[in-house]
Amino acid sequence: MPKASxxxxxxxxxxxxxxxxxxxxxxxxxxxQLQGFVEEGRVATSSLVSKGDAxxxxxxxxxxELHDAFTRKMVQEDPKKEPPVTGARSNYVIITQxxxxxxxxxxxxxxxxxxxxxxxxxxxxLSSAQRLPDIQQAVNDAVTLDDQVMIVNASTGRLGWLxxxxxxxxxLREIWAxxxxxxxxxxxx
Length: 189
Known about the structure:
Layout: H1 9-12, E1 17-21, E2 24-29, H2 31-40, E3 48-51, E4 58-59, H3 67-76, E5 90-97, H4 103-113, E6 115-120, E7 123-128, H5 132-142, E8 148-153, E9 158-162, H6 166-181, H7 185-188
Antiparallel strand pairs: 1-2, 1-3, 3-4, 5-7, 5-8, 6-7, 8-9
Helix pairs in contact: 2-3, 4-5
């Protein structure tokens, strides 16, 4: 019997997508990765993306290949878990390791998002009517690629981060997902 050759995933889902944040271009990513970013709230309908090296940046909400991902995200979002921007507020913990951004730039950003307090260097508590993806985008616009940020919506248990690297990203997803699927003894009964 002939030996089966391994499936070449690069041929099935090639890394040809770029994401634009400010003047920085990230990628290339596969369509699957980009759809995952949509479902995580890391790519919004207003985010600029392109396909291929010579692709023209367009709003992600206008990309046909992402429509299903945006639809899944809307269906998955529970209004009780992540309040819309209507005055309902959530509490966030923001942990930063800044290398190039000044504290003043970040404080200006946080001040525009709601009421906040600095707990100790690099750690803030924020009360805001903004949703996690919007806070991630605002903070992303205020920091550089060398700065690392983790944002926890303490009201809902949702988590977001910026610039933590691929290995840490994967490990963090595994840990956070494991915590969501575990049950306490009271819940198990």
